[in-house]
Amino acid sequence: MAKPVPQGAGEFRLPSTEQSFVLGTIESPVGAIPLVGGELFWQDMRGHYLVRWNIGRDRFMVEPGLYAIGTPDSTSPVFVSANYKMSFDLLRKTLTQSDGWILVLDTLGINVWCAAGEGTFGTEELVDRIQASRLQKVVSHRRLIVPQLGATGVAAFEVKKYSGFSVHYGPVMLADLPAYLENKCRATPEMRIKDFPLIERLVLIPVDVMLALKQGLPLICLLLLIAGFARDGTFLQAIFHHALPPVFAVLAGIVAGTIVTPLLLPWIPGRAFSVKGGLSGLFLLLLFFTLCGGFSADYSMFAKISWPLIGISIASWFGMAFTGSSTYTSLNGVRKEMLRAMPLQLLGLLAGLGLWGTSLWLG
Amino acid sequence: MAEFRYLEDVVTLECDQEKCIGCTMCTVVCPHAVFRMEAGKAVMAFRNLCMECGACMRNCPSGAISVEAGEGCVRGIINEILGIEGPCC
């Protein structure tokens, strides 16, 4: 995919200093380079909080190009990053005590790993950005520290061939970067492994809940509307009586798939995420309707079977969707899982809706 | 490391011993330590841990590694099943 830089590309360009986090500039042979610090301010933190809830996430970005941090000179290291502001901010926070250059690639506001998978954090963009920043005039060495997870998009040997810079893959986690630098840019085997600890799964939950609600709300509205036409009671009475249990089943399914499954991921039985989601759903739905007395209340058997069916199908679906956020599932694994799970999920949901619909009119 | 394991025997990762020049790049870039060097050649020691990110293939200068790389997200695969070009994630 990577090609030599086309003619005319790589025209000289530096990032704007009119960005909230730019503290000033630092002189270099190619001009004044925007200077940033390691400190995050309240507007940075506010942005981080909002994007964790999927608010403004697709435009949370910094201008690509070369930045300075600390008081770098021509011998200082060059760190390559993505223009997702979260990636950039966490890098400069990690580099608080260091002097260096940060080369931000244009990844359309996507983080390093995902952008590398899509190819925007890639050889071509890196080679182009080196040229556009006139990096060879700013630093006297020819080394780049690229995040290891960027290797999915960056071919080190091609970067060397087309730009003269040699790529050194840094650690997977930013937290290990200071130790990596201390250790003469050598990573220990542990620094090369991508794990998926509880805290990382936890921070992903709000975005997944928001995305799930977007999908779940139409279904909830549909349930409310249909319930109104049940044979007993007035429109509003019928909604209250018949729609509440399945609406809670949908919500419980979303909770099971987007909160319980990620949190308890290593401990829920099964390898497939759809199985983990389905089991979380089964457990949560049975627990919920037993505790709130739904199973012993005055509802038909059809209705009582329909609620867990609907909830479990939805839990399985959102559990499966968490493969996209996980750090260890493979394309062919997810494809295999989906081809098997989706017919069952659809069948479960339709059977559940069918039984519930039947209960509205046949009692 | 055995804490997280996905489905067995599904990945498409292949490593051609004949083409391997022993540069060790695959052992550097792999986030799941799938590769190990044996007698100067890369071998797939933990093939089932592969997540098909494609970093090894991309960084193999001799083209010894092949894998159907991709992100494996639900939306991307549904688009693929429906035969439409669409973004993943």
Describe, in plain words, how this protein is organized in 3D.
Chain A is an alpha/beta fold. Chain A is built from 12 helices and 7 strands. Chain A has 2 domains: about 20-190, Rossmann fold (3-Layer(aba) Sandwich); about 200-360, no CATH class. Helices cover about 50% and strands about 10% of the residues of chain A. Chain A has a 5-stranded mixed beta sheet with strand order 1-2-3-5-4, sandwiched between helices. In chain A, strands 6-7 form a two-stranded parallel ribbon. Chain A is elongated, with a radius of gyration of 26 Å. The model of chain A has no long low-confidence stretch (mean pLDDT about 95). In chain B, the strands form 2 sheets. A two-stranded antiparallel sheet of chain B has the order 1-4. The interface of A and B includes residues 153, 189, 193, 327 and 336 of A.
Q: Beta fraction of the residues of chain A?
A: 5-15%
Give me the count of strands of chain A. Answer: 7
- Give the biggest sheet of chain A: 5 strands, mixed
| Rg calculated over all Cα atoms of chain A | 26 Å
CATH topology of chain B: Alpha-Beta Plaits
Summarize the main sheet of chain B.
Answer: 2 strands, antiparallel
Mean pLDDT of chain B: 91
> What is the number of helices of chain A?
12
Spatially, the strands of the biggest sheet of chain B line up as 1-4
The 3D shape of chain B can be described as elongated
Going by CATH, the architecture of chain B would be 2-Layer Sandwich
Structural class given helices, strands, pairing of chain A? alpha/beta
Subunit organisation of the chains: heterodimer
Poorly predicted regions of chain B = none
Supply Rg of chain B. 15 Å
Task: Give the second-level CATH assignment, the architecture of the largest domain in chain A.
Answer: 3-Layer(aba) Sandwich
Structural class of chain B: alpha+beta
Measure the end-to-end span of chain A. Answer: 62 Å
Task: Furnish the topology, listing elements before pairings.
The complex is a heterodimer of chains A (363) and B (89).
Chain A (H helix, E strand, L loop, with lengths): L21 E7 L2 E6 L5 H11 L12 E5 L8 E5 L2 H10 L5 E6 L6 H7 L4 H10 L2 H4 L4 E4 L9 H8 L2 E4 L7 H6 L15 H30 L7 H29 L9 H19 L9 H21 L9 H32 L1
Parallel strand pairs in A: 2-3, 4-5, 6-7
Antiparallel strand pairs in A: 1-2, 3-5
Helix pairs in contact in A: 4-6, 8-9, 9-10, 9-11, 10-11, 11-12
Chain B lengths: L13 E2 L9 H5 L5 E4 L2 E4 L10 H4 L6 E2 L7 H9 L7
Antiparallel strand pairs in B: 1-4, 2-3
